[in-house]
Amino acid sequence: MITREATKEDLKILLEFEQGIVSAERPFNSTLIEGEIHYYDLNEFIQSPDATLIVVEDNNEIVASGYALIKKSDKDYNNFKSYAYLGFMYVKPEYRGKGINKVITDELVNWAKSRNISEVRLDVYAQNASAIKAYEKAGFEPLILTMRLKS
């Protein structure tokens, strides 16, 4: 397996991955609208100097993805001015459980470090125990839990 930066030629499969993420998240989020949803501007992540979008290939087939985006802290009281936000973490079902998500996470964290970014964050649904376990295995720890009330 190899890891590389995504290109525009990869967009078709990456858009399929995006819908796979939406499908996986629907059971955790009753506020999502029906039908096709687009969370990400994948083309922007490919082009932006403040982002990297990577893919993992196995025998010339893209099997996983993830991105890191440098964001400015919106809190004056944080002890960091910028952080890397990770997202679009997707591994094809038949490749799950093989450590690919950790490979992606490590690659994205290293990319952030190469840009002198030491704070790395991501979001995960509180009920998504398998994702939480995978991120904890990669060194992440819970920080805040957003709660909601539908009135």
From TrEMBL:
Gene Ontology cellular component annotations, sorted alphabetically: ribosome
Keywords: Acyltransferase, Ribonucleoprotein, Ribosomal protein, Transferase
Domain of life assignment: Bacteria
Molecular function in Gene Ontology: acyltransferase activity, transferring groups other than amino-acyl groups
Keyword Acyltransferase attached: yes
Matches recorded under InterPro entries: Acyl_CoA_acyltransferase (IPR016181), GNAT_dom (IPR000182)
PROSITE patterns: GNAT
Repeat listed as a keyword: no
Domain N-acetyltransferase: 1-151
Alphabetized PANTHER family for the sequence: N-ACETYLTRANSFERASE, UPF0039 PROTEIN C11D3.02C
Protein name: GNAT family N-acetyltransferase
